[in-house]
Write a structure and sequence with these properties.
Elements lengths: L1 H21 L3 E5 L2 E3 L3 E7 L6 E5 L3 E4 L3 E3 H5 L4 E5 L4 E8 L8 E6 L20 E6 L2 E2 L9 E6 L8 E5 L5 E5 L7 E10 L5 E10 L10 E6 L12 E6 L8 E5 L5 E5 L9 E7 L5 E10 L5 H56 L6 H10 L20 H7 L3 H39 L1
Parallel strand pairs: 2-9, 12-16, 18-22
Antiparallel strand pairs: 1-3, 3-7, 4-6, 4-8, 5-7, 8-9, 10-11, 10-13, 14-15, 15-16, 17-19, 20-21, 21-22
Organism: Candidatus Aphodocola excrementigallinarum
Protein name: Cadherin-like beta sandwich domain-containing protein
Keywords: Membrane, Signal, Transmembrane, Transmembrane helix
């Protein structure tokens, strides 16, 4: 009985161990055959509560953890992504502390590239339209690619035109055929446009040259009148000309715009104030036009003469003013010189008077004593106490300095005489100077 119990216990232990191995972690990887650069995803599952599963491989890990726990499995964070950089066989192995999985074998091959060449054949264009037509460098205003016929009219003097056309499609070819010179009447030009697919469209340009007609041009290019500055204006038919009083006929030359036209001049004789000269121009078609020149005559024009006389008077006045001013300036200078000479002569006279005064003989001592005793001067008259008597201690100076009334009067007389002589001499010298200056002016 005891043996049976032991065997039963061993069986339970074995079953427990087997159960544990059956419940061990697992690893699954897909795909197992890839090309270089492709990715492999490995999923770890059946991880026990206390287990940690480590995954090892030589492949390049792109995402995911290298160690997975049960909580990672429960949270869905149990995937690991790898990629292969080169060809070969790689093993991926999962391990726990007491368990190692069988390695998962991954085969990496070189990727092969398949090139598919598609050849597309472009269809040829059928566009045979024109985009423009030009005649002598100017585009036809009402051109339309759908209008294939155009009419152009030119004057009779136009003998040649240049026509050009441009295709709407660059692959189309344009050809122009027509006469080299224009005849009077219709001249047809054909423009052919050939598309890339060899379809052709034709455009027609008919140039009509007008018949030759007689000119109706009665215009004047210029009018010349000999001896006068005639101002011609082509926009006017009436002109005014002021001529000399003695002129009775003018030499007129007319140049016409049209060489086939002619002109005739009327009224160009016996010209007087108010006369009208008519220039009648007749065109090639016999149409005519009249141009008029109205004559004006003035009496002798005194204005230039008056202006000349006034100008001459002004010049004479200016010259006279300059001469007078020059003489005044010279006289002022002479007067200054004369005044200087007069002052010099007066100075000389004063000097002579002083010398004469000094030469008056001294009074005798007897005369002085008698005058003092009688209180009289030498003439016997009483001397007023207010008379100017200068008393000087020096006897010699006193004899020469004490003057009587008679001496004073004599001294005044001599001074007056000397002054008159000096003035007469100065006047005489001034007269000579003025006479000399006048002689110089006459010589100038």
């Amino acid at each position: 009985m005891k043996k049976k119990s032991i065997l039963f216990g061993l069986l339970i232990v074995v079953l427990f161990i087997f159960t544990m191995k059956v419940n061990a972690a697992s690893i699954r990887c897909t795909p197992t055959s890839v090309y270089v650069g492709d990715q492999i995803t490995c999923t770890i599952s059946d991880v026990a509560d206390d287990e940690e599963v480590s995954v090892t491989t030589s492949l390049n890990r792109v995402s995911g953890k290298t160690t997975i726990t049960k909580s990672d499995v429960d949270n869905g964070d149990n995937n690991i992504v790898y990629s292969a950089k080169s060809t070969g066989t790689y093993n991926i192995t999962a391990k726990t502390t007491d368990w190692t999985s069988n390695p998962v074998r991954i085969t990496v091959s070189e990727k092969t590239t398949t090139t598919t060449t598609t050849t597309t054949t472009k269809s040829r264009s059928s566009n045979n339209y024109l985009s423009s037509i030009t005649i002598d460098g100017e585009e036809i205003d009402d051109f339309s690619k759908n209008t294939t016929r155009y009419f152009i009219e030119v004057e009779n003097d136009v003998t040649k035109v240049s026509i050009d056309a441009e295709a709407e499609d660059d692959t189309a070819e344009v050809d122009i055929d027509g006469p080299n010179s224009l005849e009077v009447g219709d001249n047809e030009y054909t423009i052919s446009v050939t598309s890339e697919d060899d379809t052709t469209k034709f455009y027609k340009v008919i140039v009509t040259r007008k018949d030759e007609e007689e000119s109706s041009n009665t215009g004047i290019k210029r009018i010349k009148v000999r001896g006068y500055n005639f101002k011609f204006n082509k926009n006017s038919k009436t002109f005014y000309l002021n001529i000399d009083k003695e002129d009775t006929e003018l030499d007129i030359t007319v140049t016409l715009n049209d060489k086939n036209a002619s002109y005739e001049i009327e009224g160009n004789e016996n010209l007087k104030d108010g006369s009208v000269i008519r220039i009648i121009v007749t065109a090639e078609d016999n149409s005519s036009d009249t141009y008029r020149i109205i004559i004006t005559k003035n009496d002798t024009n005194y204005i230039p003469i008056i202006i000349g006389v006034i100008a001459l008077i002004i010049i004479i006045v200016i010259i006279a003013f300059i001469i007078i001013k020059k003489k005044k300036s010279k006289n002022n200078k002479d007067n200054k010189n004369n005044k200087g000479k007069k002052k010099e002569k007066e100075s000389e006279v004063d000097k002579e008077d002083t010398e004469k005064t000094k030469k008056i003989p001294p009074l005798s001592s007897d005369t002085i004593d008698i005058a003092k005793e009688n209180n009289q001067d030498e003439s016997g008259e009483e001397i007023d106490d207010d008379d100017d008597i200068i008393h000087i201690d020096n006897d010699e100076e006193e004899k020469t300095r004490i003057l009587s009334y008679a001496e004073k009067e004599e001294l005044k007389r001599l001074e007056e005489l000397n002054k008159n002589d000096v003035d007469s001499k100065i006047d005489e010298e001034l007269g000579k100077t003025m006479l000399f200056n006048n002689d110089d002016d006459d010589i100038d």
